[in-house]
Each structure stands twice: as C-alpha cells, then as structure tokens.
C-alpha cells in the first residue's frame, strides 16, 4: 500500500514538473533545466558511489564527453541517435576506467577519476587545435529549451526508476555488501569487480546523457566550459548533503544547493568557490552521512526512547523486502 | 632542441616532480591523509615566490627561507584544525581515507578560490636568472639548473634526515606500522601532524622551485596533485627513493613527449604511464614503504 | 586424486616469506587441524585457499579443479567457505540478511522465498533462531561468530575453513561449538581448522598439520604430532630462537 502511494506521488510530481514549461517563462525553464540536471547528476553519481563508497571525482569528464559528442555530431545525425552515440562513448570510457581501477583499492579509483576530466579536456583541446583547427564549436539546434527540459525530465525519472528497482533487487543487496566489506562479499560468492564495473558504467552513461542533453543550452562550446571541475564538485556535495545511500537523498541535497549556487554565482561571482568549499567541508564534518540519515537517526532515537518506556519488544525488520532502507 | 638539452630539461622537471611527490608520500604514507589540495599548496607557494620577488625584491632562493617554514606551518595548521578531528573520529582506515579525500577536495576549492580572487586566472611568471648556461654541450637557462640543484639538494637532505636521525626513524616506523610504533612509545598523532607539516614544507619548496622556470595559474593545482600522486604510486607509497626515481622518469618522459611529439600530449603521456603502472604493478615500481 | 591438494604453496610479502613450499592433502570428509605458533603462516594458508590472497607459488586444487589463480567468488562457487579470525559481519545488514547474502550469491539460483526459509533454518542450526531481525552489529561477539558460521554454511560448502572459530568461547559454549563442528562434519563437510584450543583439536581432529616459520613441520595423527619434539620446541621456543 505504502509503495503504491509512493509511486503515485512520484508520478504526480513528475507530471507536474512536465507541465512546468507551460507556465514558466524563459528564465524559469532555464533554471529548471539546471535544477533537474543537477538532481539527475547527483542521483546518478550516488547510484554507484553511494553504496559502494568508491568516490568518483570524474562526473564532469563524462558530462563533458556527452556535451562534446553532441556538438561534434548534431549536424550529421538525428538528435536521438546523437544521444545514443554519446551514451556509447561514455560507456566505453567508463568501462576502460573501471577495468583499470575498480579491482584495486578505492583510493586508486579516486585518484584516477580525479585527473580524468583534466586529461580528457586536454586531449579534446589538442584534437581540436591540431586536427580540426578550431577550439570552440557553435551549436544551433532546431528545438527549444522546453524540449531539452523534457528530455532531462525523462532521464531523471528513468534514473530514479533504476535506483528504485536496484534497491528492491538482489543488486541492491550486492551493493550494500560491497560497501560494507568487499572481502566478505567476495567470499559469499559475489563477483564484486563485475558488479562495481556494471554500476559505474550505468552511472557514467546517465551522467554522459545529462551533458549531451544540456549541450544545446550553451550554443557555444569549448573544453573549459563543459569540463569545468565545479560540476563534479557540486554533484558530489549535493549527493553527500542529502545522503548518497538513499534514493531521494541526492535530490534533497541538490535542490537547495543548486538554488544557493545560482544565488551565489549571481551575487558573489568571485567568491562562490570559496564559500562552497567551506560549506562542503562543513557537510563532511557535521553531516557525513547526509541530512536524511541525520533526521532518521533523530526520529529513531526519539522512537526508541518511547518504546523503551512502553516495553522491550524486538524491532521488526526485513518483512517482504530484501534490503532495509528501501525507497523513502 | 637537441637530445641533450631535452634530457637536461627532463631532469629539471623530474627533479621538481620528485620533490613535490616526496611531500605527498610523507602525507599519505605517514599521516595517512590523501591530500587532494596538495597541488594547490604548491601553486600557493609559487604565487608567494612571485609576490616576494615582485613586491619585496626577495629572490626566490631566499624566498625559500620564508616559503618553506610557511608551508610547514600551514600544513601543521591544516592537519591539527581540519584533519585531526577526522582522524580521531574515524573507526578505520577506509573511513578516514574517504573523509580526508572529501575534506581536502573541499579545501582545494577554497584555496583555488582565494588564489583566483587575489591573482585572477591568467598565467603568471617572473624573470629570475634567465641567462643561458652551458652544461655538457647543451644550453640551458640558469634558473632551471638552480631548480634542479635545489630539488636534488632538498630531496637528499630529507632522505638523510629520515634515514639517519632518531625522529626520522620514528616517522618511518609509523609509515610501516602505526600499531607497533605506538608500542615502542612513538606518539603517532604527533608524528602524523609533523609528517603532514613536513609535506606542506616540501610542497612549498616545490612551488618556489617551479615558479623559477615555469608559468603557473591559480587553477593549475589539480595537475600538480595528479602528477605528484602518480609519482607516489609509481615509486611505492611511502618510498622516498622510489618517489625520486619515479619523478625523474616522469619528468624525462614528459619532456621527450613534448619535444618530439606534442606539448599538448604530456598529460596523456602521464596518464598512459599511470595506467600501465596500475595494470602491471599497482604496488609501485619500487615496492612499498621505506624500511 | 585427493579432495584438497595443496602442493608447494608459497607466499611472499616483499622480502618476507610467510609460507614456504608447503604441501599437504585432505581426503573427503576429514577434519584436520592446522597448528603452529603465532606468525607461522596458518592464516596465510587459509587466505590463499579461500582466495583472499593470491599465491606466490605452488597450487591448490579441490577435487581436481585448480583454485589458485581464481578470484575469491569463483572459489566460493567451487565449494569453499570460511570464517575469519576476527569476525567480519556485514554491518549495515540484519542478521538474516547476512545469511541471505551468502544464499543468494552462491552458485545456482535460489528464489528469495526459499532463501528466507533456508536462512531461518541456518540461524536455528547455529543457535540463533528468531534473531534474524536484529542488526548484525548488535549481536554479542559469540553470536556474531555463530552468525558468521551460518553465513559460511549458507554457501553450501564442500570444504569449510575455520580460523580460530572456537577462540574466546567459555567452557559450555566450547562444548556446543565442538558438537556443532562435529555435526557439520557428519553431514559430509570436509573441515580444515586453525585452532589454539588444544582440547577442541584433540576432540575433533584425528589428524593435524603443524607449521612453523612458514614451513610444514609435521603432519600425522594429532596425538603423535603433539608429542613430536620438534613441534614441542616450535611451540615452547628455544632459548635463542627468534619469534617469527
């Protein structure tokens, strides 16, 4: 019953969001594109990095790959095919990165992803300067911002759908096992390397698609714009603020932080990275497991106070669901 | 550029990388902090040298006497104020690793933001001893030669301090096994703070040395962190001699690639080396930890 | 062909040789103790059998299938399960989810419905009936050990590796523990156990393999092996012998 209500609420929310362009102005649509973009990025990031605790700093590498693919091919192929191509390239790169690093300790993965955006940015720059002879590309598509918005919204809904299904499936349990203790997970017969690789690839493909869908918003694209490390940084702090192990956590973090970021970059264009950096450190210090976890801990403590007063009954768990902490 | 000139330029660059990587290997190998803001500490020192030279007329060699203690103090402050609480609360090494990565990632944006406000995003440089000198038939700028001498001098001094002195032995003991070090009466928290601070001092020295012969920008820290990390992994975490050797290798490869292939491909070359090391010998070319 | 065949097994960590050309065999249905002073390489041998550590030399085969070189999950699928010297629970899961984890990811497919019933049975078998809903980290140390054994059994092993599973139990718990191991063996599971509780070793294991400083020192009937002067010396130490 609760599940059906939750699904219905989610469906209504997405339907409401889909109607947004009908009553929002150009500025409003632009803002909503940014917002849904970051909600999707943070959720996709958390899909892999949340449960496995492998911190990926490569968000903007895949985002940029998506954007660049579109700018290079939008004139040659129909739009959906270009998106598919972007997804394929993102998939290829993520498999390469994952195969090289995911069987090693987490820190190698972090380091590798840390520099990946810079590497790809320099390679694209080199290619553009030496082979095509120009650095920037103009990008004029025939459709308006509301189409971009709707595409993003679909991607966002798909991301949540995937996250929801994973949490209810064996894969969700597998990811928790990997996050808890990889050695035990392996000894239980779980092919951890393959599971991590698959999830990383999935998460990266979604991130690539966000970049690809948003690309037309710039009209002019060059490496420093689409490979801007701030995008990786924002994605990370949004997911952490809300709580990266929960379905709605990244969204809960993304909405306020995106609005704050918009406000900061409008009013303090020179200082926002300092403020965000400090904010980020504060989050790691004060809410290392995110707002939702903090709130839940608070209510759980209050409840256990109450139940201790009532009588010592054993807590109920795992009824009909594989893993606890299901869709909230 | 002749081959000889390229080789010497490569050694200069490699010496600087080795110096930078030694600091990072101390921070990661002994203090157990993966510091993603390390390169930004290097860049900060480069700007400090630039300011000292331009505004106060202090040449960068003397500037080292200010920048290195400054880097040491900054490192010490960062460790005790920001990182020590994380170390204290972490139940195990894995949690500390993630926490320190996230915190220093935030720190990176703070430092970079401050540098951007102060100096803007343009490439900066100053002129210092730009006279040509003849070495083994190759012509090289005096500042590069000095950079190489400084890098090697500082690196060897550090190595001797760590291997020939009592507190150096204590630090190495912490690198090999924190638990046993504790048993023989070493205060591992103090050792960690000291190692992190020392790493800060080395980052500062690397920054000053780099600023003598290269241009730099406020946003360039990431690349230095990356290269230092790659050198650390190539050399084996905590292994100073490994870092020295790996730094020189990386410097040579980069210079050869930029001379004979394309300067735009140096980072790609760096990454290719990194990938090869990860696939072939993830424990590093020269094994783990100083013994 | 022996059931488990360990031949010429070695493990080096940098310059240190932890296991040095060790060979021994287990017949199907045996319970064998792997003995030796601390640091003699017993746990390292278990770690190599279960795939936690790659071997540096030599080979391990189970019923003719080569295990060495396989990733740990493939070794688990081949029929090897283990417990750890320091209990390793999956802390974010409940007790029954810890068991489900091993049931659902073992070789072959099991539906969630069946898995749930089986998990409850396994918990009952180790004396944890009705405790499945508790958080794994809330269990006492002894109960965590029981849970870990249930998790190892959940993967339906042919070979069970127990790393000091009986350490830290009080006398009455010890008796229950010994009975439990004997019962598992009676069900046909071959068991290799590293153990310092000698009473348990004498009660359970007709045969023992002794290691010292990385090498095999003795292999034979437990009573004989424990009287072997070399073994006694390895345990009690010589005046000038370095502790490995």
Could you give the topology of this structure?
The complex is a heterotrimer of chains A (328), B (291) and C (244).
Chain A: H1 2-18, H2 20-23, H3 26-52, H4 59-73, H5 79-101, H6 106-132, E1 137-138, H7 145-168, H8 170-180, H9 182-187, H10 192-214, E2 220-221, H11 223-226, H12 230-242, H13 249-267, H14 272-286, H15 290-310
Antiparallel strand pairs in A: 1-2
Helix pairs in contact in A: 3-7, 3-8, 3-10, 3-12, 3-13, 4-5, 4-6, 4-10, 5-10, 7-8, 7-10, 12-13, 12-14, 12-15
Chain B: H1 3-29, H2 38-56, H3 60-89, H4 93-119, E1 132-135, E2 138-141, H5 142-164, H6 166-176, H7 178-183, H8 188-213, H9 221-235, H10 240-260, H11 266-280
Antiparallel strand pairs in B: 1-2
Helix pairs in contact in B: 1-5, 1-8, 1-9, 1-10, 2-3, 2-4, 2-8, 2-9, 3-4, 3-8, 5-6, 5-8, 9-10, 9-11, 10-11
Chain C: E1 4-13, E2 16-26, E3 31-35, H1 42-50, E4 57-62, E5 65-66, H2 72-77, E6 80-82, H3 95-104, H4 112-125, H5 141-154, E7 159-163, H6 171-186, E8 190-194, H7 198-204, E9 207-212, E10 215-221, H8 222-227, H9 229-236
Parallel strand pairs in C: 3-8, 3-9, 6-7, 7-8
Antiparallel strand pairs in C: 1-2, 1-4, 4-5, 9-10
Helix pairs in contact in C: 3-4, 3-5, 4-5
Q: Mind explaining what this structure looks like?
A:
The complex is a heterotrimer of chains A (328), B (291) and C (244). Chain A has a two-stranded antiparallel sheet with strand order 1-2. Chain A has helices at residues 2-18, 20-23, 26-52, 59-73, 79-101, 106-132, 145-168, 170-180, 182-187, 192-214, 223-226, 230-242, 249-267, 272-286, 290-310; strands spanning 137-138, 220-221. Chain A has 15 helices and two strands. Residues 311-328 of chain A have low confidence and may be disordered. The longest helix of chain A has 27 residues, at 26-52. The radius of gyration of chain A is 21 Å and the shape is globular. The two termini of chain A are 14 Å apart. Chain A has one domain (20-310): ABC transporter involved in vitamin B12 uptake, BtuC (Orthogonal Bundle). Chain A is an all-alpha fold and 328 residues long. In chain B, helix 1 (3-29) packs antiparallel against helix 8, helix 2 (38-56) runs antiparallel to helix 3 (60-89) and helix 2 (38-56) packs parallel to helix 4. Chain B has one domain (3-280): ABC transporter involved in vitamin B12 uptake, BtuC (Orthogonal Bundle), CATH 1.10.3470. Chain B has helices at residues 3-29, 38-56, 60-89, 93-119, 142-164, 166-176, 178-183, 188-213, 221-235, 240-260, 266-280; strands spanning 132-135, 138-141. Chain B has a two-stranded antiparallel ribbon with strand order 1-2. Chain B is mostly helical. Chain B contains eleven helices and two strands. Chain C has 244 residues and is α/β, with parallel strands linked by helices. Chain C folds into two domains: 1-70 and 157-239, Rossmann fold (3-Layer(aba) Sandwich); 80-155, no CATH class. Chain C is built from nine helices and ten strands. In chain C, the strands form two sheets. Chain C has a six-stranded mixed β-sheet, sandwiched between helices. In chain C, strands 2-1-4-5 form a four-stranded antiparallel β-sheet, with helices on one face. The two termini of chain C are 34 Å apart. At the A-B interface, helix 6, helix 12 and helix 14 of A face helix 3, helix 4, helix 9 and helix 11 of B.
